Amino acid sequence: MAKINKNDYELFRLLVEYRLLTVKQLSILLQKSPQGIYRRVGALCRMGLVASRDAYGNKKGRPEKVFYITQEGLKCLKKKCSNQKVKFEYIDGDSVKYLGHHMLLNWFRVGLVKSQREIWDIEAKLLAYGISDYAHVDTETGQTVQFVPDAVVALKDKSRNRGVLFFLEVDCGTEAIASPKRHHDDLRQKVINYQVYFLNQRYKKYEKILGAGFTGFRLLVLTNTEQRFAAICRLVRQMSTDRAGSDVDFIWMSHQKPMFEKGVSGRIWTKGGNTMLPADSIFDNFAKSVPIR
C-alpha cells in the first residue's frame, strides 16, 4: 500500500483551503508538473484520502476532474497538524452547489498567487468563504440586508506600506442583473449595497484583519463570458445616469478570457463600465501580464 509523504500534507492543506482544485490548479500552486500531480492525486484517491467529481472546464462539453479532501484525508491532516481545527462539513468539496462559480473564484485565487510570485513589490492577502456583513440600504424602512463577498483582497505596496482593498463578486450569469423588486441577489442591488457600505465606512474593520490602512475600496466583478461582461458594463453606466452623482468608478469589471490570457495582475479591468477607456490593473504601477497556464 502507498504511503503518505511530506508533500501530501501540503496538497491536503490546499484542498482544505480551496475545497475543490483541478490538477492544473494544483500544479500551479505546488509548482510541480501536471503529470506528477495527476499520478499522486490518483494514488491518494485509491487510498481514500482524496475524491473527485466532474466539472466542465473552459471548453464546453469537455468535463474534467476536480478533487477534494475526504473525511479520512482530513483526519490524516489533523494528526499531522494539530492547529487544523476545521470541520469537514465546511470544506466538503462534494457539497459545493454552484460548481462553475466556485471554480472561477478559485482560478482568480490561483492567478493572484501566480502574480504575486512574479511581482515581489506587492504583498497580497485574501479572505474567502464565510465572509458576511450587513449594509443599511433603505433609510425609510430601516431595512438591513446581508451581503456576502466572494472574496476580500488587500494588495499592499511594500515600499510605501500602503494598501488597496478589493471586494470580489464572481458572476456566472445565474443571478438577475436587475429586478423590479430590488432583490438582494441581483447585481444592481449588490452595487447599491457596496455604495452604502462605503459611505458607512464599514470596510474599515478590515484594516485590523488585513494589516493595512484603507481610504476606500474597489469592487471587482469577474464574469464567465464576454456577453455577461458587456451586459454588466451597460448596467453600471446606466446606474451612473439614473442615480445622479452616483460614483461607479470604484467598480472594476473583467471576464475569464483576459484573466487567463494576461493574469489577475494584467491590464484587464474596466473601470465604471466604460469600455472606451484603456483597461487598468489592480496592481497599479506594478501591472504585469502573468498568464494563468
General description of the model:
The chain is α+β, with helices and mostly antiparallel strands and 293 residues long. The protein folds into two domains: 6-95, Arc Repressor Mutant, subunit A (Orthogonal Bundle); 99-286, Trna Endonuclease, Chain: A, domain 1. Helix content is 38%, strand content 21%. The protein contains ten helices and ten strands. The strands form three sheets. Strands 3-6-7-8-9-10 form a six-stranded mixed β-sheet, sandwiched between helices. Helix 9 links the parallel strand 8 (218-223) and strand 9 (251-255). Helix 1 packs across helix 4 and helix 2 (23-30) packs across helix 3 (34-46). The chain is globular and about 65 Å long. The two termini are 34 Å apart. The model has no long low-confidence stretch (mean pLDDT 88).
